[in-house]
Write a structure and sequence with these properties.
Elements (H helix, E strand, L loop, with lengths): L1 E5 L5 E6 L43 E2 H14 L12 H8 L3 H13 L3 E4 L3 E4 L14 E3 L4 H4 L3 E11 L2 H7 L6 E11 L2 E11 L8 H6 L4 H9 L5 E9 L3 H7 L7 E10 L3 E10 L4 E3 L5
Antiparallel strand pairs: 1-2, 2-3, 4-5, 6-13, 7-8, 8-9, 9-12, 10-11, 11-12
Helix pairs in contact: 1-3, 2-3
Length: 297
């Protein structure tokens, strides 16, 4: 086991070898491939691997970053569910054997990343896609008049939803092996009866086993909220690649546009905690009545 010693000048922590204690907890990563200890570790129980001869020693990690990592582990294994309150700063400080200020700094970063939500006088809660103010966080297509919240939810038509074997490209994007099971879905989203978005989605089959077209069409809120509620997987961030394309005949027919109509192609990879990819999404957007809006700060 390693104990953490604080550097007086930098405030950073470094690991120093100590005699082994009863339990060990080391961070792991998985696509719901994670299998982690259920025992909450103290900050001093974080394991550091000694560098091999001739290799540089690992960089120091600030103590609050280590606490942030431990809180992320608890979120990842579902100790605190979306929408639930996490323990108070005082309780977490006692649990991890650090000061409240260190815990507060870790929570501030997680709140800044939209993983936790502070509520004045009530505490800190796990963020959820069911919250009204985050429902449109991942939807950047905005009507030319008004905004997404005033336009109302899209009408969903699920064309296909089935379990298939992952192609090499899909497997690579989801961190799987080619041939592993994935859920493949295709749907059309319409606003005021006008088909606006055509989407193809791929989700890891193990994490979303049993997902049906009925679930996707009948859930009244955002799809990410449904995946969070029904399968315990929360999408926390996404990467997107955008380009202009022309549709093929099938795509044009589903969106009810002529073949020569330019469309916006949005290729998205969505991640859950600890950057585990959980969704590939390929969308074609009509832009004759909507535009893609992104706010840069």
């Amino acid at each position: 086991m390693m104990h953490l010693h604080r550097n007086r000048k930098s405030g950073s922590a470094r690991a120093v070898a100590a005699a082994p204690l009863g339990h060990i907890c080391a961070p792991t990563r998985s696509p719901i491939h994670h299998r982690m200890s259920s025992s909450p570790p103290f900050a001093a129980d974080i394991i550091a691997t000694a560098p091999a001869a001739g290799l540089p020693a690992p960089a120091f990690s600030p103590l609050y970053q280590q606490i942030k990592g431990l809180i992320l582990q608890s979120l990842q294994v579902g100790e605190w569910k979306p929408g639930e309150a996490i323990p108070s700063e005082m309780e977490l400080a006692a649990r991890f054997g650090v000061s409240q200020g260190t815990v507060r700094k870790a929570i501030d970063e997680l709140a800044g990343e939209n993983l936790l939500l502070r509520r004045q006088g009530k505490g800190t809660f796990v963020s959820t896609h069911a919250e009204q103010h985050v429902q449109y966080r991942f939807l950047r297509l905005t009507p030319d008049s008004g905004d997404a919240s005033t336009e109302g939810p899209a009408e969903r038509r699920i064309i296909d939803c089935r379990s298939v074997r992952a192609s090499a490209e899909v497997a690579r994007g989801l961190g799987l092996r080619a041939g592993e099971s994935v859920i493949q879905a295709r749907r059309v989203l319409s606003f005021h009866g006008e088909p606006t978005i055509l989407e193809d989605l791929w989700l890891p089959g193990t994490a979303f086993k049993g997902l049906t077209a009925l679930q996707m069409s009948d859930y009244p809120g955002p799809t990410y909220a449904m995946l969070e509620l029904e399968f315990g997987v929360r999408m926390v961030r996404a990467n997107e690649k955008i380009r202009a394309v022309l549709p093929d005949a099938e795509q044009a027919a589903l969106l009810r546009v002529p073949l020569h109509t330019p469309l916006l192609s949005v290729a998205r990879t969505s991640y859950t905690y600890n950057d585990v990819p959980m969704e590939l999404r390929r969308g074609l957007y009509r832009t004759d009545s909507h535009h893609y809006r992104n706010e840069l700060a």
